[in-house]
Specification:
The relative contact order is 0.12. The strands form 8 sheets. The chain has a 22-stranded antiparallel beta barrel. It has a 5-stranded mixed beta sheet with strand order 1-6-7-4-5. Strands 2-3 form a two-stranded antiparallel ribbon. By secondary structure, it is mainly beta. The two termini are 27 Å apart.
Length: 738
């Protein structure tokens, strides 16, 4: 029924829209009124901030179903990975070695990071790239934004504006691992020069490179726009549902050599330890819906103003089979124990029952409300931005047993743990840019964030979990930009930021907030044929919450406060027009990432290791895009990505080394236009990793103390896991514009 429904939509809507007797342009026009709601958090070339911009057109020929982190893979200092191995499903992104929990992401100025985990789950918005008009990717602390502080970078997404003319577009792609994407986009165009309604529906299915790492993804985007000479009013509704078979467990070194595509999720064993199969519904099932209301108003030629409201509701669960033999002999966990399940032991005959195989669902049901306002004032040499943000997050966490052996039926679906997290945040920022001479401008930015985070209830175990913590952060920033001439400018900036621990940090210990001082010195050179951006950064951390290398039971990274740490690097981002048909985009990042005074307890003895490498922080990242326009409508791009070796832990263990990798992709695109009935047909062909390299872009590293082999001796044991990525694979797509 679901397939019939979406196919009906794909067929009928284009026919209806194409029947309108209005001339349809090939390109989608945008209005001239600036979107004030993102004006305060975006920057331009006259700002002392390190950033890169991307437009929808930059990504269009590669937007064939893979998630946004994969599409952003070729930006400076970025490293990406995919649990399923082919860029669909759960994907992640790091910048300058800094994980997703410390990369601020906003959509139209509203935070997308989860309020509690601080993570970004792109899988909940499949194919959202089809509705992103532009990306701005700021590295380092960047300018003040909304939500949890940026410690590695910030990604600002601005969704589609409006189309002044009606259109409908059907696109589809198919590729390796039975990947199939179907997308419909449409717009009514401006009705009476004031109103537009537009939307998108998408469906993506893939088996994944990793065994059983299936993805079943659906999403939508609907927008109503009213505009006149000095007002822009928009109501947006977007969201999606993902059902993905779990693939966050990774594999060990032995399995990597035996079968790199193996997925241990859902293993079922008999009482003698013989594997009998896999649980078919070992899935993550989650829905997320967003409503945004945005009002932008030009008060006069000097001043504009905006108000915004965001509502997000997310709910779903992950389901898993807890096998008794596996728990007792391999994982040594307690998921089958009655105490863990909050059950009382009982007797059947003369047999005492205190554990059972079971199937559990662990639920999250959360609501997020946010309000923003912006006031922008520009007069002569002065540009002033003032903004505020208020949000409330309310999230319920609970677990229930949906099946178990040997327990009374009336206990099925009882909650065996339940807790609630509430987070409230209020922040204000003011930004001033002043041109003090023909060549020199100064920039000031100050933000105050106050927040309260509370948790009450129990977590699995059951164990009481309570948090009641408040934070007030003052985050100042300043910079200067010097225009050498029309082609060159230099900039220097200093930023200080502080940020709170996340839910997992509180669960794993007694964390404190972390602090970063970020110094950036950059040079920009821009002419008609060459664009070069180079910058040096020095990032000094105090109490940094670094990744230990270990992961929890759902694949989320475990962090810990450390002492002093430092990241120092050089980034170069360039675009060179070699001739009218050939241009080259190239970037590389060279860095040193160190713990300055790291302590580690080995074999029961606490030792100072001094300087060690920060986890997941490669010293060299490079990307290249060679674009050759073969003819007016035929284009070819050769893309390459290199990431040097990195340590998955902080103790410089050789076992924890993730090897370097170099991969290359090929991207062809061809446009057929104009046609009598159809306005344009676009064809795309993407070959990922066309050299068929075996590589690993992510993994985990853990240690534990062995105290049972020899009661008189504590022995520290190390272990690793890996997430292999797909070898050669392809995607081919077609887009038809009516």
């Amino acid at each position: 029924m679901k397939i019939l429904k979406i196919n009906f939509i794909f067929i009928i809507i284009p026919l209806v829209l194409s029947a309108q007797k209005v001339q349809v342009k090939d390109s989608i026009s945008t209005i001239s009124l600036n979107e004030v709601n993102v004006e305060g958090i975006r920057v331009s070339t006259d700002s002392p901030i390190t950033y890169t911009n991307l437009s929808k057109e930059d990504l269009k020929t590669r937007n064939l179903g893979q998630d946004i982190p994969v599409l952003l893979n070729f930006l400076p200092s970025v490293a990406t990975s995919s649990d399923a191995g082919n860029g669909i499903g759960y994907t992640n992104l790091r910048v300058r070695g800094i994980d997703a929990t410390r990369i601020n992401v906003t959509i139209n100025g509203f935070p997308y990071n989860d309020s509690e985990s601080h993570s970004v789950y792109w899988v909940d918005l499949p194919d959202f790239a089809s509705n992103v008009e532009s990306f701005q990717f700021q590295r380092g602390i960047g300018t003040s934004t909304n939500g949890t502080g940026a410690f590695g970078g910030s990604i600002n997404l601005r969704s589609d504006f409006l189309s002044e003319t009606p259109f409908s577009e059907i696109s589809s792609s198919y590729g390796s691992f039975n990947t199939l994407k179907k997308t419909l986009r449409f717009s009514t165009g401006l009705i009476n020069k004031n109103i537009e309604f537009s939307g998108r529906f998408s469906q993506i299915d893939s088996d994944g490179y990793i065994e059983r790492a299936k993805s079943d993804l659906e999403s939508y985007f609907l927008q109503f726009v009213y505009k006149n000479k000095n007002t822009l009013f928009r109501i947006l509704g977007f969201g999606g549902q993902e059902i993905t078979y779990q693939s966050w467990y990774g594999i060990d070194s032995f399995q990597l050599k035996k079968n790199r595509r193996y997925n241990p999720a859902g293993e079922i064993y008999d009482e003698n330890g013989n594997k009998t199969g896999f649980y078919n519904n070992q899935v993550d099932n989650y829905k997320q819906n967003h409503i945004q209301v945005l009002w932008d108003k030009e008060i006069n030629s000097l001043t504009n103003f905006s108000l915004g409201y965001n509502f997000t509701h997310g709910y779903g669960f992950y389901e898993e089979y807890n096998d008794k033999w596996y728990v007792e002999n391999i994982s040594f966990g307690d998921e089958t124990d009655f105490k863990y399940l909050n059950l009382e032991p009982f007797e059947i005959g003369n047999k005492f029952i205190s554990s059972t195989e079971n199937i559990s669902q662990k639920w999250l049901d959360n609501f997020f409300h946010a309000l923003t306002f912006r006031l922008n004032y520009i007069k002569n040499s002065t540009k002033l931005n003032f903004g505020g943000f208020y949000s409330v997050y309310d999230g319920d966490h609970y677990g229930k047993i949906i099946w178990a052996d040997n327990i009374p039926y009336d206990l099925i679906n009882n909650k065996f743990y339940e807790n609630n997290g509430i987070k409230k945040e209020l922040s204000f920022f003011i930004k001033l840019k002043e041109t003090i001479s023909a060549k020199t401008s100064i920039f000031f930015d100050a933000q105050i964030r106050t927040l309260n985070y509370s948790i009450n209830g129990t977590i699995k175990g059951p164990e009481i979990f309570k948090v009641n913590d408040s934070f007030t952060f003052f985050n100042p920033k300043a910079g200067i930009i010097f225009n050498i001439n029309d082609l060159n400018n230099l900039y220097f900036s200093y930023a200080n930021a502080k940020r709170e621990p996340n839910r997992s940090d509180f669960k794993n210990g007694n964390p404190v907030s972390e602090t970063l001082n970020d110094f950036e010195f950059g040079w920009r050179y821009i002419n008609n044929n060459i664009k070069i951006k180079a910058n040096l950064y020095w990032m000094e951390y105090f109490d940094q919450l670094v990744l230990t290398g270990a992961i929890d039971d759902v694949g989320l990274p475990i962090r810990e406060n450390i002492g002093n740490s430092r990241r120092v690097g050089l980034e170069i981002d360039s675009l060179i027009n070699l001739n009218k048909s050939l241009f080259w985009i190239f970037n590389f990042s060279l860095s040193s990432n160190k713990n300055l005074d790291y302590f580690f307890e080995r074999d029961g003895i606490l030792k100072s290791l001094g300087k060690t490498n920060l986890s997941f922080s490669p010293s060299l990242i490079s990307a290249s895009q060679l674009n050759y326009k073969i003819s007016k409508n035929l284009n070819f791009i050769l893309l390459s990505k290199y990431v040097s070796k990195q340590y998955m832990g902080n103790i410089d263990s050789k076992l924890s080394i993730l090897p370097s990798y170099l991969i290359s992709d090929l991207n062809f695109s061809y446009i057929i236009e104009p046609l009598k009935i159809l306005k344009k047909i676009s064809l795309s062909f993407l070959v990922n990793n066309f050299l068929n390299k075996e590589y690993i872009s992510n993994g985990y590293f853990y240690t534990f103390d062995d105290t049972w082999s020899d009661p008189n001796l504590i022995k520290t044991v190390e272990g690793v896991g890996f997430y292999p990525q797909a070898k050669r694979n392809f995607l081919i797509g077609i887009s038809i514009l009516f």
